[in-house]
Specification:
The chain is of the alpha+beta class. It is 40% helix and 9% strand. Strand 4 and strand 5 form a beta hairpin. Helix 7 packs antiparallel against helix 12 and helix 12 packs antiparallel against helix 13.
């Protein structure tokens, strides 16, 4: 009779053999020697014909050896004697070699560890580069922009110097436009398509009327929104759901914040509209833009959400964002897409933009729970605001905590824009259509240039110059800066204050080191906080 352990071992062996078939890696025999696969014993290439050595060339950065030399990207890439590209291309597109090829059995521990761990979700067309790879690029080629090719074959111009970051943010849309597949969300920079679908702030070719409406309704640049009183009342009422039990998780935070968002944007009647909440959830899952075979269904959801939001806008009060937008826009002709700005579309955009608040709120509370001194100071500020009465909503210390949370864990770790014409970077000309990558998360946590880069230090934001630091971009810079940054900070800090006034965070999961470097990523779905009454 087979034992449970034997059945599990047989299943594990089957997984190893399947992995060997997919990757072409050798499997060790019982004597420790690599066992040749059947196809190799017969003299045939592995299935699929993919070689185990170099998987293809990458485009190295050109013009880095001599910054003064003017070079075109059409120049052939230099290659070494082994046929591999010179330069740091391997940092983003590493190639294997027979000598360095690990065996399947050697990586069995990693396979078992990953079996019980959820795989990270990747956005379509998304690009990820680790800090180590980016540091290797800079170590080999200095601060000059590096032209590299990713494993997926996409060619990117990676910006590694703050001087180039300043130009990235300053260039107009006519020079650097948003890359359509890249969607950014919530409190950080969003660059939707020209139709305006998707959450966040726009770097597309917005009409002047739309820009003026966003700046006026969201009170761009004002620390305290003109409608702060009604907004903070809504936050206080919905924050009671966060402290109803002794624990706090992402699902509870999302429900409370989304209810508050619908009330702030559309009015109190929208708080209980679970159907609209479901439609917005589908739009978030689709990144605001239908794709592939689900186009018809996604557009149906968009149409239903737009119609429902438009109905709320008709009856929105003056203290809601939709009501302020309706007064600003005037009559709307829905049959003319190029006519006046439709406040219903703007309201739907703002609702989607609030999707990042729950994640940021939970991370901020987790960081405060791991740093008791900062938590006590933030709680004292929250209590003092209520005792002082009068104007509310500033909370500078809590806002600094939210900014620091966004620095450590930005909503959008990488920004990609595409050149509309030929551009020149450090003496190197690049053709139109070149994708330019700004690794925002890397620059915000660069230990070579940012003091205490991997540590939670909210005090760094007390300096007014920190908001103008080109390396720190939780809300972007220049013309692409989010007009709702101050409103987002006010709402997130107000939620934190409501939690800390009556409760103390006494337990956190995961447990963070209050003095050591913080983890590079922090999935809010795994965060669990324990609350105790003060």
């Amino acid at each position: 009779m087979r034992t449970v352990q034997g059945a599990a071992l047989d299943g594990l062996k089957a997984r190893v053999r399947a992995l060997a078939e997919r990757t072409g890696l050798p499997v060790r025999s019982a004597w420790g020697e690599p066992r040749p696969r059947a196809t190799e014993r017969a003299g045939r290439a592995p299935r699929g014909g993919a070689p185990l050595a170099d998987t293809g060339s990458a485009v190295p950065p050109l013009g880095a050896d001599d910054p003064g030399r003017r070079t075109s990207v059409k120049e052939p890439a230099r290659r070494t004697s082994a046929g591999r590209p010179a330069g740091p291309a391997a940092a983003l597109a590493p190639a294997g070699s027979p000598a360095a090829t690990p065996t399947v059995l050697a990586s069995l521990g990693a396979l078992l560890t990953a079996a019980g761990r959820p795989r990270p979700r990747r956005r379509p067309g998304g690009v990820r580069a680790s800090a180590a790879e980016l540091r290797a690029l800079r170590a080999r080629h200095g601060d000059a922009p590096a032209l590299v090719r990713t494993r997926s074959g996409q060619t990117l111009l990676v910006l590694l110097d703050p001087q180039d970051l300043r130009r990235f943010y300053a260039e107009p849309v006519s020079v650097l436009a948003a890359d359509p597949p890249q969607k950014c969300r919530g409190l950080s920079t969003h660059e939707p398509g020209r139709d305006g679908d998707g959450p966040g702030c726009a770097r597309g070719e917005q009409r002047p009327e739309r820009r003026r409406m966003s700046a006026d309704v969201l009170a761009a640049g004002l620390p305290v929104h003109p409608a702060a009183g009604p907004i903070l009342t809504v936050v206080a009422e919905e924050a009671r759901h966060l402290t109803a039990t002794g624990t706090l998780e992402l699902a509870r935070v999302r429900r409370a914040v989304n209810r508050a968002a619908r009330r702030i944007v559309l009015g109190d009647p929208a708080a209980e509209d679970d159907e609209l909440a479901g439609w917005l959830t589908q739009l978030r899952a689709e990144d605001g833009r239908p794709r592939g075979g689900r186009t018809r269904a996604a557009r149906s959801v968009q149409d239903k959400a737009r119609a429902r939001v438009r109905e709320y806008v008709r009856h929105a009060g003056d203290d809601t964002l939709a009501g302020r937008a309706a007064r600003h826009a005037g009559p709307v002709d829905t049959t003319d897409p190029d006519g006046a700005v439709d406040p219903a579309d703007e309201a739907r955009l703002w609702l989607l933009a609030m999707d990042a608040v729950p994640d940021t709120l939970l991370r901020t509370l987790l960081l405060l729970g791991a740093h008791p001194c900062e938590q006590d100071a933030a709680a004292a500020e929250a209590s003092a605001e209520v005792a002082a009465g009068g104007a509310r909503g500033e909370l500078p210390r809590l806002r600094a905590c939210v900014r620091e949370s966004l620095r450590l864990y930005p909503v959008v770790p990488d920004l990609i824009r595409v050149t509309r014409g030929e551009t020149e970077w450090r003496g190197v000309r690049h053709p139109a259509g070149t994708a330019v990558l700004l690794p925002a998360a890397f620059h915000q946590r660069d230990p070579e240039r940012v003091p205490a880069a991997h540590v939670f230090v909210p005090g760094r934001w007390k300096n007014p110059a920190a908001d103008r630091d080109i390396r720190m971009a939780p809300f972007s810079h220049g013309g692409g800066r989010c007009p709702g940054d101050q409103l987002g900070l006010m709402i997130t800090a107000a939620f934190c204050a409501e939690v800390l006034r009556g409760h103390r965070i006494t337990g956190t999961r995961p447990v963070l080191d209050p003095v050591g470097p913080l983890p590079v990523t922090l999935d809010p779905r795994g965060v669990r906080l324990t609350l105790t009454r003060r």
